[in-house]
Write a structure and sequence with these properties.
The protein has 366 residues and is α/β, with parallel strands linked by helices. Helix content is 27%, strand content 15%. Mean pLDDT is 85; it is low at 1-36 and 341-366.
Length: 366
């Protein structure tokens, strides 16, 4: 029996995530990163880029930051950790700012998510953002600054400034979705020259997402960590991202499961309805099986295939290049548009291509 290359990639990705976790020291106090306006290039794996070299807005002394495994707690100096494509893999020009989850209590960068995109030439910037010690709007300021910083340095990073996306997991999806909906909000501006750079991401990938701050579908613990124990109705409405969607919200790829008992999948449904209302191109993938954050576990069957579907979505939209390994006959939106237009006008469909032999079909005599 043949071993499908996707599952080989998935196993390697999970192992790579464990290796990356092993590189992080055990529980200890971590010194604040050196603040510098200069960013050395070319980018290297594990390189740290401070977000606020001129000073963190609203900074306060909350004590030392700690790291336990892949979990960062008590973050007061937000920054990016760089994961460029591996040596020998051409850059696609696309960047993803990955906002890991942690309920706004901490940030857990484990799981190997970032390794899914590197083989396609995508540079991943893992965002360590401020959490409950600061509360809103600190995490939102951090992600908006991250988008501005990566876009402003796109040329020297070898990136396309129109191919800067965000990826979020759990509460990190709320951080990422705030970038996609509150990118023009004054809360993200501090008077620095970078304020003039657009903070709007070009696409969003949101997994097992915390999105609304209003009952009955809010994650109470995430809301408390972000907005405090007694948030006002105005605060809850502002940070319920489904209420902030406009026609300018970037295209989205959404994943959730019915088996998630930590964050209700209605978060994804509410956002999808808002995106559809404003004609924002969106893919929504809901699976019956899988616990919260289980998206890479092959024991949950089709749920573990979302990375391949996301890869095809990115390829179709031009964020990663065409590939002979693609499952699609038509790999780009530009190729599909004439076909869609022809079908809409009622023209005869194009003749079907000859069927290719099945990969595992038997061959006589063998």
């Amino acid at each position: 029996m043949k071993f499908h290359p996707f599952f080989a990639m998935l196993v390697c990705t999970i192992l790579a995530g464990r290796v990356m976790g092993a590189d992080v020291p055990g529980p200890e106090t971590v010194a604040a990163p050196t603040v510098s306006a200069a960013i050395p290039t070319p980018l290297t794996k594990g390189q740290v880029i401070p977000l606020w070299p001129e000073g963190v807005p609203g900074w306060k002394d909350i004590g030392p930051e700690t790291v336990s495994g892949t979990t960062y707690t008590n973050i007061s100096n937000p920054r990016l950790i760089v994961y460029p494509p591996p040596a020998g893999t051409p850059s696609s020009g696309t960047a993803i700012i990955f906002c890991p989850g942690g309920g706004y209590i901490h940030v857990n960068i484990g799981g190997g998510i970032q390794g899914l995109f590197n083989p396609h030439g995508v540079t991943v910037f893992v965002l360590l953002y401020r959490c409950q010690e600061f509360g809103a709007p600190a995490p939102q300021q951090d992600v908006l600054r991250a988008v501005r910083l990566v876009r402003a340095h796109a040329a020297e990073f070898g990136l396309d400034p129109t191919h800067i996306g965000v990826l979020g997991d759990s509460a990190g999806s709320h951080v990422a979705a705030c970038a996609g909906t509150l990118f023009a909000d004054p809360l993200g501006k501090t008077g620095a020259p970078l304020d003039q750079v657009s903070a709007r991401p070009d696409f969003m990938i949101l997994l097992f997402s915390v999105l609304t701050m209003e009952d009955p579908n809010a994650s109470a613990s995430s809301r408390r960590a972000l907005l405090g124990p007694r948030p006002t109705p105005e605060q809850m409405a502002k940070y319920s991202v489904e209420q902030q969607v406009t026609a300018d919200t970037p295209p989205a790829f959404l994943v959730h499961t019915q088996g998630d008992t930590t964050v209700k999948l209605e978060n994804e449904l509410q956002l999808y309805a808002a995106l559809r209302k404003h004609n924002v191109p969106t893919e929504l993938h809901l699976y019956p099986v899988g616990t919260h954050g289980s998206g890479l576990d092959p024991n949950f069957g089709p749920t573990a295939l979302w990375p391949r579907l996301c890869e095809e979505w990115m390829r179709f939209n031009g964020w990663i290049p065409p590939s002979p390994a693609s499952l699609m006959k038509v790999q780009t939106a530009a190729e599909a548009t004439p076909r869609v237009g022809r079908a809409a006008r009622g023209a005869a469909p194009a003749p079907p291509a000859a069927a290719a032999p099945a990969a595992n079909s038997a061959t006589p005599g063998k």
